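User: C-alpha cells for XdhC family protein, please.
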Amino acid sequence: MTGTVSARALELARRRVPFVHARVVRAQAPASAHPGDEAIVHGDGTIDGFVGGQCAEGSVRTAALGALHGGGPLLLRVLPAGEDAFPDAPGAQVVVNPCLSGGALEIFLEPVLPPPLVEVAGDTPIAEAFLTLAQVLGYATARSLPGGRPAEHTAAVVVAGQGHGDAESVRAALDADVPYIALVASRRRGSALFDELGLDEREKARVHSPAGLDIGARTAPEIALSILAEVVEAVRARPPMPPPAPPVEAVDPVCGMTVTVTPGTPHLTTDDGELWFCGTGCRDRFAAGLVG
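Assistant: Done. Predicted C-alpha cells:
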C-alpha cells in the first residue's frame, strides 16, 4: 500500500475496525485512476485514498460495502455505458456505470476483518499453553487482570487462574456479555464458585465449566487444546465482530445507477421526498428538468 493508506490501515487494524482495501489492478485510458492506486473503504461508506473519479468511486463504495457484509473478496469491473461486459463469475462483479466518461477499471476489493480476540485470565500452565495454541490459529490474544473488564468485541474469555482471581474474572466477563466464557475448574469447584457469586441459572449456563470439549485431555497442552476447540466452535457459530450496519442505498432517477447514501452524496429535496444521485451531473440534469 502507499504510505498514507498503509498507515491508515495499520491504525484501523490496531483499533480492530473492519474496512475494505481497494486496489486498481487495471485501468483503460482515459480513466483517471492508474494500476496501483488504492483506497480504504470504511463501514460508513467514506473513502480514504483514490481509485477513480466521483462516478467510479460510487460504484466502488457500493460494491465494497457488499463485500464487507459477507460478500468476501471481489474483483470489480467498472465499465462506461455501451461497453461490452464479460459475464459475472464467482468472485467477480461487473458494473456498467452510465456516468463514467470513459475507460474501464478493474479494482480488487478485499475485506479486512479483525481476528477473534480471546482474553485469558491467569498465568498457569494451562493459560500459557492456551495462548500459544490460539496464536497458531491466528487469533488475537490478551491477558486480563482479575476483575478487569474485557475489551470491546472480545469473543471469548478463558479463566484459568486455578483459584487466583477466578470469581472476579467470571463476574467481569458476564457483565461484559462476552459470548463465550470458560472456567478451568472441576465440576465441584466450579459449582462452589457459582454459588459464591450468586449466579442465577441463566448466568450459570453461560459459563462453560469444566472448560473444553471432552477429549480425554490430561496434560496442560491437551486441556488447552480441548478449550480452544470449544472456542473455535463458539466463534464459528457466532461471529465475534460483525461489520457495521450497511448504509442506505437508492437508485439515481437519471441514470438508474445504485447509489450508496452518505453525507456527501448529491441529492435534491422534491415534493416526492429526497432523491439521491451518483454525481452532480445527474443531479443538475434532473434539477434542470424540474425547472423546465
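User: Anything notable?

Assistant: The helical segments are 3-14, 54-71, 125-136, 166-175, 187-197, 201-206, 220-237, 280-291.
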